[in-house]
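Key result, reporting period 2: structure in, sequence out.
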């Protein structure tokens, strides 16, 4: 296969494996905490920051960071209106910022290659991108290990969590901060529109077949990395967009996990019925 002999593809493979593993593991907690909308919002709402960075000729990573911080501040400000609530505030801010990004993207001075901001440039992975992906993986691994107990209490026993030493509000804030870091680190390779796929699809697949949270986190990391490998191989063999192929591979793994989970449930019900029949 071409991927085994091309240095460009090998660098892309290394990056997407690291990003897929980190995003998949983090995604499990995002789904358990029901913060999927926040993940989509941060990924999409940073578009103005990316376009402004492109227009100004500054590093896109700086624009992505600024975009995330600005969106977080706007959401916090809008959520202060008790008549709206946090969900509506997020919807209003995301719609407004994404619309602003689209308007800026149509400006005559925007450099060629805006599509890379939307769909990523996985095959153009530079050393800085690999370092950012590696740093993200380390941060996510350390944070999930250190905060496992607090996150578990927040998800499964939020009422008793404070008395057991966990602070649900702080846990959610920490997970959202990790989400922001993940989005910023992955957006340049996977794109503003596709990074969401690696945050959600592997985690959703793992939750369908994993019996414990730890198993789900490990499965999601493995599935995220596998989606990266599968997508990149498809991209190289069929000459299609790498980011899109990775996103479709992640969805395919989710569908496969759904079929596997359904088969397992059917087999379990059948064994229970047979056991009851034998008792009679």
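The corresponding designed sequence is given below.
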């Amino acid at each position: 296969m071409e991927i085994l002999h091309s240095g460009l593809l090998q660098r892309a493979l290394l990056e997407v494996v690291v990003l897929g593993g980190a995003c998949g593991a983090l995604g499990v907690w995002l789904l358990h905490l029901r913060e999927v909308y926040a993940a989509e919002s941060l990924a999409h709402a940073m578009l103005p920051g990316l376009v402004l960075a492109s227009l100004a000729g500054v590093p896109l990573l700086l624009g992505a960071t600024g975009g995330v911080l600005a969106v977080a501040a706007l959401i916090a400000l809008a959520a202060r209106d008790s008549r709206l609530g946090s969900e509506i505030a997020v919807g209003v801010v995301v719609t407004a910022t994404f619309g602003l990004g689209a308007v800026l993207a149509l400006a005559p001075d925007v450099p060629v290659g805006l599509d890379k901001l939307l769909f990523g440039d996985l095959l153009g992975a530079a050393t800085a991108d690999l370092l950012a992906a590696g740093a993200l993986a380390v941060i996510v691994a350390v944070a999930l290990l250190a905060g496992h107990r607090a996150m578990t209490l927040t998800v499964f026993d939020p009422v008793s969590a404070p008395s057991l030493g966990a602070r649900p509000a702080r846990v959610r804030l920490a997970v959202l901060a990790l989400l922001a870091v993940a989005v910023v680190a992955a957006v340049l390779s996977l794109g503003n529109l596709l990074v969401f796929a690696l945050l959600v699809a592997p985690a959703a697949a793992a939750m369908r077949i994993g019996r414990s949270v730890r198993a789900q986190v490990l499965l999601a990391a493995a599935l995220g990395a596998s989606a990266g490998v599968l997508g990149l191989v498809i991209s190289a063999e069929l000459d299609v967009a790498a980011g899109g192929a990775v996103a479709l591979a992640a969805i395919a793994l989710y569908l496969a996990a759904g079929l596997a989970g359904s088969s397992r449930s059917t087999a379990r019900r059948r064994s229970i019925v047979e056991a009851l029949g034998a008792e009679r």
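Residues 242-279 form the longest helix (38 residues). Residues 272-276 have pLDDT under 50 and may be disordered. This case is discussed further under Risks and Mitigation.
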